[in-house]
Amino acid sequence: MKTPRVVPATDTPPEDETASASAPPRPRGLRHNTRWLMAFLCFLGMTVNYVDRATISISLPYMTDDLHIGPEWQGVILSMFFVTYALGQLPAGAMIDRYGEKKMFAIGGLIWSLVTVATGFVRGIGSLLIARLALGAGEAPAYPSCAKSVSRWFPVRERALANSVWDNGARAGTAVAAPVVTALIAWQGWRMAFWVTGGVALLWVALWLKAYREPSAAGGISAEERAYVTAGGARLEETPAEDSGKAAPEGPAVRWRDLFRYRTVWGMMIGFFCLNYVIYFFITWFPSYLVDARGFDLLKLGFYGALPGLVAIGGSLLGGWTSDTLLRRGWSVTRARKTCLVCGMLFSSVIAFAVLVPSAMWALTLLSVSYASLAFSAASVASLPADVAPTPRHVASLGGIQNFASNLAGVLGSTTTGLLLGFFNHSFVAPLMLSGALCVVGALTYGLVIKRVEPLRIAAA
Question: What coarse category fits the chief subcellular location reported for this protein (predicted)?
């Protein structure tokens, strides 16, 4: 894709300068490391987000009789979430850049918590469909808010690890949801499960508003920590809401729609689409694969089925640590990020070989390696919006655009797998071969389509 004549973006140091070792030493003490508390708050938010998202999947078998939901409606009910969630990424990212991550994450949390509570009162398919659509819209600000927070609080050399911290909230929430929601259903029924998980989300909103600080706010960050993160390339701008009527910063403007003119942005979208296509296999069809293709009973499914997700948590943290370590050792941002992205995506293609090995344990091992490799890459994927945004006020917008493409994979992936299973007589060979091929396509995209990981050049007037 040809890019128009451009001028360099000036809000962020060049990548060689950003990645240099000339920054002030890392500050010591809790008071000077507030940024890690902010990353933990984002982790808690994503964990609660995924618990509330998973409640419907676990509760649906128990809701069918009460609400007279036939099998033809169950897939529709589950997919409605992704419609508004994917579409909501685009306006959510732009609004976060305009109003700030603290306000927008809180508003999103308030919406999805109230919708979760309201789901416990539904009386039919119609009201349940409306609740699913509203839940997707409410959860849309979560991902770009976390990406925005890390971009503002962390220097480049710590950004990937910080992103892996909050990104693991997705895996932690999925793991926590199964035993907690099941216990609530066994205790008081499926309606109680929605009331309790929605109530927990309300508590998180209160905690977020109380504990989260804007790095540009007075007292939000110590002078030592500010010097460290600023010298390291943190995108520490003020949002318009914080400006309180002050003039906007000077410099060429980039309209939201102009972001789609950049080759790098399309590379981010296609690469994340490929990555998430495979991840959604683990979220949607993986249990069916273990039962139908490998003959796992309920006990084995409950024990072994959790292993890939647990291994993926380690893969995510390793990916963040590796990318940041390479930067600290003098690698450029381009080389460090693309190495982790390409290697992780290539290793994840071993998912295609899971259908070829005769042993169920070998298949499970290959699937665990694939999921961990995807998570390894995901830490650098989450860092890309902050790495390439032309100005700090485009970080969340790019995060929303990237996540919009990735969640289209959630809709298409689950549907395509079902169609292939029907066409090939319930064989998982074709679905897993396709997943492995998309891993290779993702690796090629990150390696060849994205040329340099640096702030996008702003078109000259």
Answer: membrane
